[in-house]
Structures are given as structure tokens and as C-alpha cells.
Amino acid sequence: MEERYIASVDLGTSKLAVCVARISGQDVQVIYYKETPSQGIRYSYVINPGKVEDALRDALSQAQQELKIRIQQVIVGLPRYHVRQETASAETDRTDPDSQISEEEIRAVKSLALEDYPLGDPTNDVIYGAVAQSFSTEDTFGELENDIVGMSAGKLAGNFKVFVGKRRHSTNIDSVFNSLGIAIAKKYFTPGITARAVLKEEQMENGVALIDLGAGVSSVTIFKGKIMRYYAAIPFGGNSVTKDIKTECNFSFELAENIKKAYGACMPGKLSALGEKTLQIVDESGTPTAQVSVKYISEIISARMKEIIEALLYYIQESGYSSEDVLRAGVVVTGGGSDLVNCANYIKELSGYSVKVGYPRRFFSNEGCPEAGEASAATSMGMILAARNDVTLNCVNEAPARRYWTAPKPAGPDLAAGTVIPETVMTGHVGSDAEQTPEPPVDEPVIEPSVISAQVDENISVFDQPTEEEIEAAKERKKRPGKGKEPRTPKPPRPKPQFVWWKQFQSTITKMTGDIFDEMENEEV
User: Fold this and answer.
1) Are 466 and 473 in contact (CB under 8 A)?
2) Cα torsion for 44, 49, 51, 54, to the nearest 10°?
3) Can you give the residue ranges of every domain in the chain?
4) Are 395 and 74 in contact (CB under 8 A)?
């Protein structure tokens, strides 16, 4: 069986993670994984493409030299912050009520839901993907996708969660890889595939909240019935903790980060003998410059982590899935922040849920790359596992050209002129491809291709794009007398979630810092 290679790039706030896996059938062997410091990335999105390009060029060059291959395509994750979730629905009348509902009809309903979804500002917003929540007929209500296929009905309706992000954040990623001469084979909205990499199916079935503690962004993703039900993110993470240590101890950021990684812990009262240790800081000549106790470092870390955890617990409460009867599998915490000692126990103490640390599950072998099994590699492993079933993808091959087609204008004066959807799964184009396939007009809403739907099944499926035949069939159904939709009024903007904890943030952190100094008394910092 011919071997293939899949290369993924995780654009994180503090790190660039390059991963390469060798695929043979269903066998996945991670042969390269390395994290390097990132530049030009803020809150998980590319804010300075030039700086990202320089750092990524070195990271990819090192991988190619070590593996003796040329990487021509990569899969990459979309930003996790500045993403909002909306709801969309669609209904269609079936031509033959006695026939069985097919997967093609399910995809047609999905396409209608996105086709009719009004982006508030198509020049700035882009749809990252959609997740089917439930389907209904005239006889049933709230059926899962796997259950509705095969039923017979006269009507078919679907409800979806639509994830909308910033268009600039996506095009900046394209700019980086186009400058490097590397095509983007797939873009993934990563919360769903990260969950697939670390969670068991019974956890997603019974209800679980996945907390991903990154450097610049922390997020919570809730699954119930094997379906992604809710997602939220906050712009705080491991970097916030490091900055607190830097400020309170008058250290450099690099020193504060190293101390956090080596001795960082939550719950200072439960450190036993470790909490009594004192760190002696010396300069290059060996002269002592400062000393700080591990307990004090833990107190600083716990103060910030409490704010982050409480913010995420607030969103779990707002989701409507916070009951222990719903989240029977409790909370799983992953990402680089989960490496802090007592992190899981601290979340358990603050929330009351059962809490476990989530590491990438062993769907792959990683001899020689032990880092691939760490919690910080969960997103990279999720992208590799999501892309492995695409037998056409080989990252050492040149990428095919990208083509576009434009769906007809839906009925209704409030909708844009058309919906541009790439016909192939390729999202990057280089050299002559860029000249042959220009970007779509910016005044048209763009659906990101190949974005993971987070609909969990045995084989991770990518959000399916409709065929031309399905679109034509949907148009005909909508033209039938009495079946057309009335022009609908645009939805008013949804109020932003109120961060209750934020109102008390300044006073809380000031008080906790004051308490820390009171407890330290005569200790030298």
C-alpha cells in the first residue's frame, strides 16, 4: 500500500507546532513533531503575517531537512477566538414522501441553511463551519443525523449551529502560506477535532465539557449525544499567568515562563514539601540576584487561574448544559495549561465536576516523538486524525488548482448576491494557480471549505459541500407554488455575554495580591 504524508501546522499564540505523520492505510505514524516560539500571533490569530512567515519558514525548513522530504501542502487550524456561534435552520418538501431520506438530502438541507444564513457584514465575517444539531419530520422531532437517514417523510427540517469568524483572520493565514509557496490543503475549526483526539466516544455521548487551556486563548467545548453543542472562548491563558509572575517577581518574561513550566502549580496549600522550597536566581556570572519561594509562585498562579476557570465555568452555566445530569462525564482539561501541577484538582474544587486531564489518544504511534503524546499536542493530533481518511491528500505532492462556483441568489431582499463555495477541498493556491483562480469578491459571504463539522461518528467527516445537482433540486423545490419562503427580517444582533467575573476582576486580583504579600511578611522577592 502506498505511503502518504500529512503535515499539520498549529498556529498558537506562544508556539508554532509542526507535525508530520506517515499514513499507510489506517496506520498513522507520527515521524516529526516540534514546537518553536511563535511571533506575530495574538489570541490564536495571525495579526502580523510577515513575522509569522519568518518563524514558520524556519520551522518548516527544519522539518524538511530532518525528514528529507519537501512539504508542498499542509493542514492548518483556524483561530479559536473572535468566533461566535449562531443558529440556522432549513426546511424542504420532499418530492416522494414514501421514499427513504438519503444522505444527499441531508446535505441539501445543510446547504439551504447556510445559503439562507445572513452574514451581518460579509466583508468582515466568514462562516467557519456548521454542526447539525437535530432533524425533524412531520412525524418525529429532534432526531440525530444518523437516525433520520432511512426514514420516510413528506417534510425534512434541520437545525444547525453556525460558527462565524473574522474574514481577515482567515485571509492572513492564506497570505502567510502563499508567501512561503505552500498550499493549504484543509482548514479546520479545531475545537471539534481536538475533542475527537482526546475524548472517548462514551464521554461525548454522555455529556462532557472540554476545557482547552492555551497560551493566549482558553476555551470550552460541550458535547452531548456525540454532537458539539456549545463553544465559547476567552482571551486569557498561560501567557496571562506568566505575565503575572513576571510583574510580581520583577523577572523577564522568559525567566517567568521557565519557572512556571518547571515549578508551576495551583493550590499552594497542597504542595507539601515542594511549597517549602526556595528558588535562588543567579545571573550569568553566578551572582545571586533574587530568591522566591515555590509557594509564592503557586499563589500568583492560583490567583490568575481562578479567574480563568471561573470565566469558563460561567460559560458552561450559560450554555444550558451545566447540570451534572447532562455533563455525566464531567470536565476534561487539555492544552499546555493543563500541565500545571494540581490544575485538574483546582478545577474540580471550583466546579464540583469530576475532572480529568486529556492527552491525545493512541490512534497513532509516535516512537521518537514523545512530545506528540503531550496535552499541548492535542490540536495537532486532532488535525492529523481528521485528515487521514482523505486518501487524495499527500502533503509531499503538488496541490491541485482551486476552482470556485457561485450558488444562485436565494429569495429575500436581505441576503447577499451569492454564496461562493470552493468546488475542491483545496484552500491554498501557489504560483500559477493564484493567477488562474482569483479570490472571490469580498462583498459575497464566503464559506470556509473543508472545515470540520464536529459531528462525531466512526470516521471523522468534513463539512460536506453540496453538488450542483443537489443545489438545482433545492431550487426547484423552493420554486413550487406555495412553498417559497417569505422574505425574512434580519435578526437583531445578539447581546454579547456579560462577564460577571470581569466586573470584580480588578478589585479581586488587587485584594488577592495584597493577601499574598501579607502572608509572605519578611520573605525576600
Assistant:
1) no
2) 110
3) 232-356+497-520
4) yes
Q: Show the cell assigned to 457.
A: 461518528
- The pTM of this model reads 0.77
What are residue 37's phi and psi, to 5 degrees? -60, 140
Using CB atoms within 10 A of its CB, is residue 473 exposed (0-12), middle (13-18) or buried (19+)?
Answer: middle
| C-alpha cell belonging to residue 370 | 514523545
- Say if residue 92's pLDDT is above 70: yes
pLDDT digits (tens, 9 = 90+) for 155-183: 999 999 999 999 999 999 999 999 999 99
Identify the helix (H) or strand (E) that includes residue 76. strand 73-77
d(CA 104, CA 479): 20
The CATH homologous superfamily to which domain 232-356+497-520 belongs is: ATPase, nucleotide binding domain (3.30.420.40)
Residue 282, φ and ψ in degrees, nearest 5: -120, 155
What strand order describes the sheet that includes 208-213? 227-234, 218-224, 208-213, 331-334, 355-357
Strands 45-46 and 208-213: unpaired
447 pLDDT tier (thresholds 50, 70, 90): very low
366: amino acid identity, one letter: N
